[in-house]
Write a structure and sequence with these properties.
This is Thymidine kinase. It is a single chain. The chain is α/β, with parallel strands linked by helices. The protein has a single domain (4-142), classed as Rossmann fold (3-Layer(aba) Sandwich). It has helices at 15-28, 68-78, 94-106, 126-134, 183-189; strands at 4-9, 32-38, 48-50, 56-58, 60-62, 81-86, 111-116, 137-140, 143-144, 150-151, 153-157, 163-164, 178-181. It has a six-stranded parallel beta sheet, sandwiched between helices. The longest helix is centred in the first third of the chain and has 14 residues, at 15-28.
Amino acid sequence: MAQLYYYYSAMNAGKSTSLLQSAYNYKERGMHITLFTAALDNRYGEGKIASRIGLESPANLFTSETDLFAEMRKECDKHKISCLFIDEAQFLTKQQVIQCLKIVDALKVPVLAYGLRTDFKGDTFEGSQYLLAWADKLSELKTVCHCGRKANFVARLDINGDPISEGAQVDVGGNEKYVSLCRKHFTEKVPLL
């Protein structure tokens, strides 16, 4: 039975690595899969899912306008799709999460979505909010704060390396711009109230 899975974490927990490993397992068994990643994150090249440890794979791009259900229906018309993988799933819209539910229920294709739980202010992204609410299975991938505790927040850094609490929700970047922190260290630097 197909289900919608959401694998979430703070940055640097290995979400893309985990996605690429799972995708490889399907391909190794001769199964057809489809991969999508957010068009706005092209740090490693356009149309590519890449991990910090060097794994990568070509992927379809999605924007807020992409109809994932229509795209997957076209793919299913060509051949049997065993799984849909979505990287940077926090950037999905509410409508696209609904489309993922339709992919699971109508097309009977499992959807494995990977993304952040919260932004640099501690607020959920639209995609994360609805994936956390509607996914059949939730799985947290863990990473650590500099103190060794579980990091479940992401702080955005200014050019001096100091955490900031103002700005647009989306500002694509990596370790030069963000750091994962435990709640204690996050709230010391970025007050939630």
